[in-house]
UniProtKB/TrEMBL annotation:
<dbReference type="InterPro" id="IPR041489">
    <property type="entry name" value="PDZ_6"/>
</dbReference>
<dbReference type="Pfam" id="PF03572">
    <property type="entry name" value="Peptidase_S41"/>
</dbReference>
<dbReference type="GO" id="GO:0008236">
    <property type="term" value="F:serine-type peptidase activity"/>
</dbReference>
<feature type="domain" description="Tail specific protease">
    <location>
        <begin position="271"/>
        <end position="417"/>
    </location>
</feature>
<dbReference type="GO" id="GO:0007165">
    <property type="term" value="P:signal transduction"/>
</dbReference>
<dbReference type="InterPro" id="IPR005151">
    <property type="entry name" value="Tail-specific_protease"/>
</dbReference>
<feature type="compositionally biased region" description="Low complexity">
    <location>
        <begin position="494"/>
        <end position="508"/>
    </location>
</feature>
<dbReference type="GO" id="GO:0004175">
    <property type="term" value="F:endopeptidase activity"/>
</dbReference>
<feature type="domain" description="PDZ">
    <location>
        <begin position="184"/>
        <end position="209"/>
    </location>
</feature>
<dbReference type="Pfam" id="PF17820">
    <property type="entry name" value="PDZ_6"/>
</dbReference>
<dbReference type="InterPro" id="IPR029045">
    <property type="entry name" value="ClpP/crotonase-like_dom_sf"/>
</dbReference>
<dbReference type="GO" id="GO:0030288">
    <property type="term" value="C:outer membrane-bounded periplasmic space"/>
</dbReference>
<dbReference type="GO" id="GO:0006508">
    <property type="term" value="P:proteolysis"/>
</dbReference>
<dbReference type="InterPro" id="IPR036034">
    <property type="entry name" value="PDZ_sf"/>
</dbReference>
<protein>
    <submittedName>
        <fullName>Peptidase S41</fullName>
    </submittedName>
</protein>
<feature type="region of interest" description="Disordered">
    <location>
        <begin position="494"/>
        <end position="524"/>
    </location>
</feature>
C-alpha cells in the first residue's frame, strides 16, 4: 500500500513530509535507487531573459498528473494510474509552481532558466533549487533528488529494492574509486553469488572499476551497477584477502528486513540490548515493536542501536522509536520534532513522541493505536557513520531534546535537519526540501552532521552485530569505562592497476549521491 503521502490536500494540509537527509539508503548505499537524469548530464544554458518564465499558480488543480506520456495500467495498490494526457510543458509548469509554493528556499531559485530550453522534466527539476553555498563552500541544498514512483512505493512500503542486494561504502564516484561491500542482504543475488561484507570491488563486466575514466568504460560500469531489468546479469570481480574473485549477479527485487540481529548481550555490568536498524520504512514499524518487546522480556537495561547505514524514512517511526527508548516519564507532553516551513505555509502542530502505533499499511502491519512497548532508558548508544541521516538523526536530536544521554560511536553523521513531502507526478516522485526541524529545546542546527562521542572506523572485517566488530566493541567498552579506543587509521585498500595520472576531467558514475529520507505523516 502507498503511504498517505500520495494523497495530497494542498495547501491546507501537508499529509506526508520527509525530514530528510533519504534512503533511505545511506551514503554507503552509494548509488542505490533511481533518479538519474533521462536527459543530458549538463544543465541547459539559462535563457536570455533575466525574468525567466512566469511562475504558474494553483498547480495541483491545473497541472498535476498532466503527462507527456501517460502511464497505462495500475500502481502497486492495484489502482489505475492518475495520469492524463498532457505535454512536457504541463509537467514543467507543475514543477515550477510547486517549487515556488513549497520549496524551503524558494526565493533563491534561479529565475533565468527557461522551460523552452529543457527536453525532459528531470533536468528541469535539477535546477529548481538554491545555488547558494555554505560557509565551507559546500552546496546549501545537497538533498534534491527523484525516484521512479513505482520503485519508491515498493521500497518504502514493502521493503523492496531493485538490484543485487549489496550496499557499498565508497570514497568517490570518480577515479580512483574505493568501494567495499558493507551490507549483503541474506538470500539476495549478491549473497547467493558469494559476496561478503568487506569485499573490494575491482572490476565490473571486465572494466577496471577503480581507475576507469573514459566515457565508454564508465558507461559499461554504470550499466552493471544499475541494471534496468529483472534478471539482467553482470559480472563483478571483488578482491578478498588479496585474491580476486569473479561472480555473476542477476538483478532482482530484493526484500530486506529493516530490523535485524535483535539480541541481548550479557556483560558483567548488565544486559545490553542490541539491534541493527537500516530504514525507517513502513515495514519497520511492526518489526521495531516486536524487537522492543523481545528486549524488554529479556531484561535489557541498556541499549545499542546500530543505525550506521540508516539513511532515514518515516519521521513518525523515528518518533515511535524515540518513545520506545525513553518511555513516558521523559516524553509525556514533549515535542519530538517541530517542523519549520517557508513563509507561505501555516505553522504545523509539533510532532509528539508517539506512544501508539500509527499502523502503516503493509503485509504485516502494526495495529493502529496499539500501545508501544518501551525500555524507559536515560541513556542509549547509537552506532553511526556518514550514512546515518535524516530520521536517524532526528531520533538522536529528539532524545537529546528531553535530556536522554545519547552517545554516538563511529563517525560523523551526514547532517540533514531538512525534510520533504514526496510529490509524485507522471511516474516520478520528486523530493525537494520543504522544511527544517528542531527538537523540544529548539535545536536543529546540525547541517554539518553530529560529531561522534568516540570516533571509530567502520570495521568491515567483522559482521554487523558481532560483539568483536569495531563499533559495537567500542560501544560496549565505553558504557563501562567512558573511554574511547585509540583512533585507528582505516585500512588502506589499493588496486594493483592504480592510475598515477588522473584525467583532467574525471568521469562520474551515475547517481553518485545517496538519497536519505525521512517522512512525516500527519495524524489520521
Amino acid at each position: 500500500m502507498k503511504l498517505p503521502s500520495v494523497t495530497f490536500v494542498r495547501p491546507a494540509g501537508l499529509p506526508v513530509a520527509l525530514i530528510s537527509s533519504l534512503a533511505l539508503l545511506s551514503l554507503l548505499a552509494g548509488c542505490g535507487g533511481g533518479g538519474g537524469s533521462s536527459g543530458s548530464s549538463q544543465f541547459p544554458d539559462p535563457g536570455s531573459s533575466s525574468q525567466g518564465d512566469p511562475i504558474p499558480t494553483d498547480v495541483f488543480n491545473t497541472y498535476w498528473n498532466l503527462c507527456a506520456a501517460p502511464r497505462k495500467g495500475v500502481d502497486i495498490d492495484g489502482k489505475p494510474y492518475p495520469d492524463r494526457q498532457g505535454t512536457l510543458l504541463d509537467e514543467l509548469k507543475f514543477l515550477r509552481g510547486w517549487a515556488n509554493d513549497y520549496y524551503l528556499w524558494y526565493r533563491e531559485i534561479p529565475t533565468t532558466y527557461r522551460m523552452a530550453n529543457f527536453d525532459n522534466a528531470l533536468d528541469y527539476f535539477n535546477v529548481l533549487k538554491t545555488p547558494a553555498l555554505t560557509a565551507s563552500g559546500k552546496p546549501k541544498d545537497k538533498y534534491h533528488f527523484t525516484y521512479p514512483s513505482d520503485e519508491w512505493d515498493a521500497m518504502n512500503t514493502s521493503g523492496i529494492d531493485f538490484g543485487y542486494g549489496v550496499t557499498w561504502t565508497r570514497n568517490s564516484a570518480t577515479a580512483p574509486r574505493t568501494w567495499q561491500a558493507a551490507i549483503v542482504v541474506p538470500g539476495s543475488p549478491a549473497a547467493v553469488a558469494g559476496m561478503r561484507r568487506g569485499d573490494l570491488l575491482v572490476r565490473v563486466d571486465g572494466v577496471d572499476f577503480v581507475n576507469a575514466n573514459d566515457k565508454a568504460s564508465v558507461d559499461r560500469i554504470n550499466a552493471g551497477l544499475f541494471p534496468e531489468r529483472e534478471g539482467e546479469r553482470h559480472t563483478f570481480t571483488v578482491r578478498r584477502a588479496n585474491v580476486d574473485i569473479a561472480m555473476t549477479l542477476a538483478a532482482a527485487n530484493v526484500v530486506s528486513d529493516p530490523v535485524q540481529n535483535v539480541k541481548v548481550i550479557d556483560t558483567p555490568t548488565g544486559k545490553v540490548g542490541y539491534l541493527t536498524f537500516s530504514s525507517h520504512n513502513a515495514v519497520s514499524e511492526k518489526q521495531l515493536i516486536d524487537a522492543f518487546n523481545q528486549l524488554k522480556a529479556a531484561g535489557a537495561t541498556d541499549l545499542v542501536i546500530d543505525m550506521r547505514y540508516n539513511g532515514g524514512g518515516l519521521l513518525y517511526l523515528a518518533s515511535e522509536l524515540a518513545y520506545m527508548i525513553a518511555g513516558p516519564a521523559r516524553t509525556k507532553n514533549m515535542t519530538f520534532e517541530r517542523l519549520q516551513y517557508n513563509d507561505k505555509t501555516p505553522p504545523q502542530a509539533p510532532i509528539p513522541f508517539r506512544s501508539t502505533a500509527y499502523g502503516f499499511e503493509t503485509a504485516n502491519p502494526a495495529t493502529p493505536g496499539q500501545a508501544l512497548p518501551y525500555l524507559g532508558l536515560d541513556r542509549v548508544t547509537v552506532l553511526t557513520t556518514a550514512g546515518t541521516c535524516s530520521a536517524s538523526e532526528a531520533v538522536i536530536n529528539g532524545l537529546r531534546g528531553v535530556d536522554v544521554e545519547v552517545n554516538l560511536i563511529g563517525g560523523q553523521t551526514c547532517g540533514k535537519p531538512y525534510g520533504f513531502t514526496p510529490t509524485p507526478n507522471c511516474g516520478t516522485t520528486y523530493f525537494s526540501v520543504e522544511f527544517g526541524g528542531v527538537n523540544q529545546k529548539g535545536f536543529g542546527d546540525y547541517a554539518d552532521g553530529m560529531a561522534p562521542t568516540c570516533n571509530v572506523a567502520d570495521d568491515l572485517s567483522h559482521e554487523v552485530g558481532d560483539p568483536a566488530e569495531g563499533l559495537l566493541a567500542a560501544a560496549l567498552n565505553y558504557r563501562v569505562t567512558n573511554a574511547c579506543p585509540p583512533v585507528l587509521m582505516a585500512r588502506a585498500m589499493s588496486s594493483s592497476s592504480s592510475s598515477s595520472t588522473p584525467a583532467p576531467t574525471p568521469m562520474t558514475l551515475v547517481r553518485p549521491e545517496a538519497k536519505e529520507i525521512s517522512i512525516y505523516t500527519r495524524p489520521r
